[in-house]
What we know:
Layout: H1 26-34, E1 41-42, H2 54-65, H3 78-92, E2 101-104, H4 107-118, E3 124-129, H5 133-141, E4 145-150, E5 152-154, E6 157-159, H6 162-168, E7 174-178, H7 190-203, E8 206-210, E9 236-241, E10 254-257, H8 263-270, H9 279-291, H10 293-315, E11 320-322, E12 330-335, H11 341-352, E13 354-355, E14 357-358, E15 369-373, H12 378-393
Helix pairs in contact: 2-9, 3-9, 4-5, 4-8, 10-12
This protein binds pyridoxal-5'-phosphate (PLP).
Amino acid sequence: MLQTSHSAKLAVEGLTSKGLDIPVSRIRDLANRSMGTQGIIPLWFGETDTPTPDFIRDAAVASLAKGATFYSEGLGKPWLREAIARYMSDLHSVEMTAERVAVTASGSNAVNLAFQMLLEPGDRVLTTLPSFPTLMNVPALQSANLETLSLKPGLDGWQLDMDELVGKLTHVKVLLLNSPNNPTGWMLGNAQIARIVDAARKTGTWIVSDEVYARIVYEETVAPSFAAHGEREDRIITVNSFSKSWAMTGWRLGWLTMPASLTPECEKLMEFSMSCAPEFIQAGGLAAIEKGEDFIKAQQTRLKKARDLVLKRLGHMERVTCIPPDAAFYAFMHIDGVEDDMDFAADLVRTAQLGIAPGSAFDPSLKGWFRICFAKENEMLQEAMARLQTRLETP
Length: 395
Ligand SMILES: Cc1ncc(COP(=O)(O)O)c(C=O)c1O
């Protein structure tokens, strides 16, 4: 074998500037180590066990059969951008136009693009904790600094200190919010959104609002959106995805809305990552947007039952406290007496074949918190709850 003097040195050494310092997701880490476990019930990832509905799959297959195998427009097919604009306008009673919409390859891709557009090294981003790990870490890819504000568990659900949030807007470039929230299920109300938009206008702060769980709500049709409160040139970017609303996690399709003047910048940057979302995938997205309301309603009903089942069972476990989520499909719970959540979660896999996400993945300072994704069949949830209860009752 050919040896060179360089070979003793690893190629990756010294490459810490572009995100290599970012920790591996603790959920992914646990799941990777445990996925082969016989009989495991996996409640760690955020997706339903329902496959994408047939009418969406059929639309994509038909598009492929017709030969949609070529590059498409960078910002997305005009028919999908138009459909998304109509969908957002109708849902939120606002005027959203297609020129402000970009189709992206997933919600994650949309978040990344938003920060590529907005951030320069050293900029400050404010977000709330606990947070979906990607959101916490994406600003670091642009060498920006993250500041955090913690939601507090209260008698009336998770609480955000609005005065503190508004007070901090003066010295951050971007406010990153995720409502409905992963992992807590907390949701901002219209009055809070209006106050934040008003304050951000005064300070010139950008708002990036991750609304991928907008349709996973229990008492209403859709969660309040920043899109409904902003005007055409407000510094607001909303991030959305087909993953959760239409059970399309594997398709990798999403979108963002932005001020019209930003769209050309977005188009420029998109060229360097995905270039464009595949056309046949977008055809599936069009079917979802135009014919997906019945599926969404059925999913909301099913998830509400799943949420109530899990909350009821957790309510009978002495060591567990869980604030009922208003939205999204997670129960974020505290287990009394747990010091190391990674150890406990790994032990739960070994002894009970149950996979749940450690809370420190969403806020490194949390102790004894866990997230359960309850977007699963009743039988599976009943069995998961029984396994958890047995484990907690075993000394
Ligand atoms: C808050 C939040 N934003 C974005 C995403 C990414 O979604 P997508 O599948 O569209 O990349 C997720 C996925 O779990 C999420 O929870």
